[in-house]
Design a protein that fits this description.
single chain; 380 residues; mainly alpha; Rhopdopsin 7-helix transmembrane proteins; Arc Repressor Mutant, subunit A; 2 domains; 17 helices; elongated
Length: 380
């Protein structure tokens, strides 16, 4: 394959990466402290691609002052921003305290030193005579960058695979995305180190392999991102509709096979409080809702909560919550204001934490998939 074609693929990846990074950083549908680290990391990865193309096509020969850009060791920065992305994804309440900012120190030192040397070498701002320390510094910088990236991979591996799920507030997160992202990260670092070793023994330009893998990451994140962008936008707009209480009486009547209300013991104040919380505060829309949370809210034991629900509805706690979520979905899918939104977005806003949980929960309650239910109630 012609390497010029490969470079064209890299350029397309750069453009897509830039657009998606900007969307992550500035779109109201994506914007979050977690995604900020992802957007910054992608931009840094894109800049490393630009560095590669600049060297290959001798841009610095035409614009020598820009050669200082090549001296910026982004491999000292990228692993840190990626680490913060992983940590923030797993622990949403994580705060970037001053002690964590020390991780940026190696990159900061590298930038200052390279700017200092670059002022002499590229801009001729001053003359430096004693530069004997520069080659050893670059050697240390080189090996340190490799070690740093390996350490970050190990730390991330421990966070993702050695910690139990109960230690992560991940109820409404899927680890599939972050683990696949990590596998790409590992592939990039292994390829980078392998190419460094190969090129020492067989000098040649094999770097295009690394940049292709990096661009595969851009393409993959962009592809997933388009789907997630649409999903995030749908959920944002659905939430606005729900907040405006677009939940009409006519929809209630139109559901012919709607189950009767759950049996309620009017003498049981805890049951009345439970129903009130669910129907007035819509707490079932919280995908993190658990029996412990509800029992604590009511001031009763978990066992009594389960017994109370079963005695009055013949349902378990999870089935009882599922009932309310299904009723929420029914009302939304039969409301024409929600027609333009995906079923998945509607299910997630009703409180489900995944597509599989949504479809299985809905079918368990109704015997139909959400699409089948909607179709069965459409006016012919």
């Amino acid at each position: 394959m012609n390497l010029e074609i490969l470079d064209f693929i890299i350029v397309i990846g750069i453009v897509q990466g830039v657009l998606f990074s900007l969307a992550i950083l500035f779109s109201k549908y994506f914007k979050s402290s977690t995604n900020t680290y992802l957007g910054i990391s992608m931009l840094i990865g894109i800049l490393t691609n630009v560095q590669y193309l600049a060297v290959k096509y001798h841009w610095y020969s035409e614009f020598p002052k820009f050669a200082i850009f090549e001296d910026i060791e982004l491999v000292l920065l990228l692993p840190i921003t990626l680490l913060f992305y992983y940590v923030k994804f797993l622990y949403p309440k994580f705060k970037l305290q001053n002690k964590y900012k020390l991780l940026f120190l190696p990159f900061s030192i590298s930038v200052l030193v390279n700017l200092y040397v670059g002022g002499h070498a590229h801009f001729k701002l001053y003359s430096l005579e004693d530069l004997y320390w520069v080659p050893p510094f670059y050697t240390v910088e080189y090996f340190f960058s490799i070690v740093l990236n390996i350490i970050i991979l190990v730390v991330t591996y421990v966070l993702l695979f050695k910690k139990t799920n109960t230690e992560h507030p991940l109820v409404n997160h899927s680890l599939k995305w972050i683990k696949l992202f990590f596998y790409f990260h590992v592939a990039i670092i292994i390829t980078w180190i392998s190419l460094e070793v190969v090129e020492k023994a067989y000098p040649n330009d094999f770097n295009f392999i690394l940049w292709l893998i990096l661009n595969l990451l851009f393409y993959w994140v962009g592809y997933i991102g388009i789907f997630k962008f649409r999903l995030a936008r749908n959920r944002y707009e659905i939430r606005k509709l729900i907040d405006k209480e677009v939940k009409t009486e006519t929809i209630e009547v139109s559901i012919k096979d709607k189950k009767t209300e759950l049996t309620q013991d009017k003498d049981n104040e805890y049951l009345q409080d439970l129903v009130s919380i669910l129907e007035n505060e819509y707490i079932y829309r919280d995908p993190k809702l658990s029996r412990n949370d509800m029992a604590n809210r009511l001031g009763i034991s978990v066992g009594y909560l389960s017994q109370m629900i079963n005695n009055n509805s013949k349902k378990s706690f999870s089935d009882y919550i599922n009932y309310y979520r299904v009723e929420d979905v029914k009302q939304m899918v039969l409301n024409t204001d929600f027609n333009k939104y995906s079923m998945l977005a509607i299910g997630l806003e009703a409180g489900y934490n995944s597509k599989s949980a949504f479809y299985s929960g809905f079918k368990k309650e109704t015997g139909l998939t959400p699409s089948e239910f909607k179709k069965s109630h459409q006016i012919s």
